[in-house]
Specification:
This protein is 45% helix and 4% strand. It is mostly helical.
Length: 100
């Protein structure tokens, strides 16, 4: 019984150390996901984009930021049940048309 408690305690302490030592991805940085085929680059990119969009929506609802955040992507991303990302077009990238 004591051995199970000690093993559980060691696993819990290790988990807390790993959790709190992780570095956060700072805002306003360029993030590049590299790797071979099927390594999860798109998955991680979508995951970070949705997480950031949810955070910005919360700040908008708390009225910390004034403009409603928009979600543009070159691939279709469903971030809520019936909400999809807006299409990022070539004209946006070449600055021929503006993103509102």
């Amino acid at each position: 019984m004591e051995l199970i408690f000690i093993i559980g305690l060691v696993i819990a302490i290790y988990s807390f150390i790993v959790w709190f030592k992780q570095k956060k991805v700072p805002n306003n940085t360029v993030i590049a996901f590299t790797g071979g085929l099927g390594s999860g680059k798109t998955y991680l990119g979508v995951k970070y984009a949705i997480k950031h969009h949810k955070k910005m929506n919360l700040l908008y609802k708390l009225r910390i930021i004034k403009n409603k955040p928009l979600f543009y992507s070159n691939i279709p991303i469903r971030y809520k049940r019936k909400k999809w990302s807006k299409i990022l077009e070539y004209d946006h990238l070449t600055l021929k048309s503006r993103i509102p």
